[in-house]
Amino acid sequence: MSEKPSIHMVDLAGQYRRLKSDIDRVVLGCLDEAQYINGPEVGLFAAELAEYLGAKHVIPVANGTDALQIAMMATGLKPGDEVIVPAFTYISTAEVIALLGLVPVWIDVDPHLFTLDVSQIKSCITPKTKAIIPVHLYGQCADMNELMQIAREYNLIVIEDNAQAIGAEYTTSNGGKIKAGLMGDIGCTSFFPSKNLGCFGDGGALYTQDDGLAERITMIANHGQKVKYYHDVVGVNSRLDTLQAAILRVKLKHLPSFTQARQLAASRYDQLLSEVQGIELPVRNQYSTHVFHQYTIKVKDNKRDQLKEHLQQRGIPTMIYYPLPMHLQQAYKKYTYAHRRFPHSEQLCSEVLSLPMHTEMDEHMQEYITNELKNCLKHA
Q1: Model pLDDT for residues 64-74, shown as the tens digit of each residue
Q2: For residues 205 and 61, what is the distance between their CA atoms, to the nearest angstrom?
Q3: pLDDT tens string 217-245
Q4: In a domain, 59, yes or no
Q5: Fewer CB atoms inside 10 A, N or C side of the chain?
Q6: CA-closest candidate to residue 183, choices 82, 100, 303, 288
Q7: 20 phi and psi, to 5 degrees?
Q8: Which domain does 271 fall in, by range?
Q9: Which strand (E) or helix (H) includes residue 131?
Q10: Contact at 8 Å (CB) between 65 and 98?
């Protein structure tokens, strides 16, 4: 009988050990140089990420939430403006809308793809609607072809929340391919440690093809100044540490192989779980590659929580992303209207379960996970 494997939701330690010599070298180099804020590594990382993405401008900031806030500030959104956002997402997307005095307008999601249901957008547009924030959830893009057509028709700003799908590629209506985050006006991402491209602390970035937006983003992120001590606009203090940029430079070189490892793990899950009754496996968007920040299944017949507990007892961590939709969060109830319904978002919150997914997964781990999952559902 084979030994029970050690299972992690995200194996950051294992990934570090694989890259240890390169990471230790650059970290020690930063300590020797002692340029901890805006050191040369920050600019080098921005340039290298821009090349990888095909972006004209990349502006690193302190975290992904800051990236979203700065994007909204840079595009000139004003208090009272309405911003369309999915009801099923992480709180950061809505949080910065509310903090800036904007009004989040929830929209339901596709029950199979988990991303914003574009067919509902037009019915939510009012004279106050100024922007849409599609979230590329779990690692694949929202339906950007139709979304961008609507945005152009109604002159709406598009800010892509790309915290979970860096490196995903989208096939546009003309057959071209473009990286996630570069279809709208601004793309925002996070380098939180568990992300596909993660640092050893907090970090984030914005990217855009627009020179004017890039200049404004850079200025806002630096206290609203272009020239030191001369502040042209109200800004914030948001910057990526030099140490984190150095680590990200190392990991960026491996991002394509990280993506391949996640996709291989997802394919293994697909195969091992293909005949299991009572669950729905991740559905791929035909226009988007999937970089599998999460491998998220849907568990039917109210068995999700029982399955989660069973796996936990057998040393298998899982996560529920997310247990409560935006419109039912206590802090955001004032933005909910009685006539609006979000049945798919509510149902997903009772069904979704994310299985362990990271770059260090192997067949033994996944066989153990899926066998335990099968055993639980078989006897449930």
Answers
A1: 999 999 999 99
A2: 5
A3: 999 999 999 999 999 999 999 999 999 99
A4: yes
A5: N
A6: 288
A7: -55, -50
A8: 255-379
A9: strand 129-132
A10: no
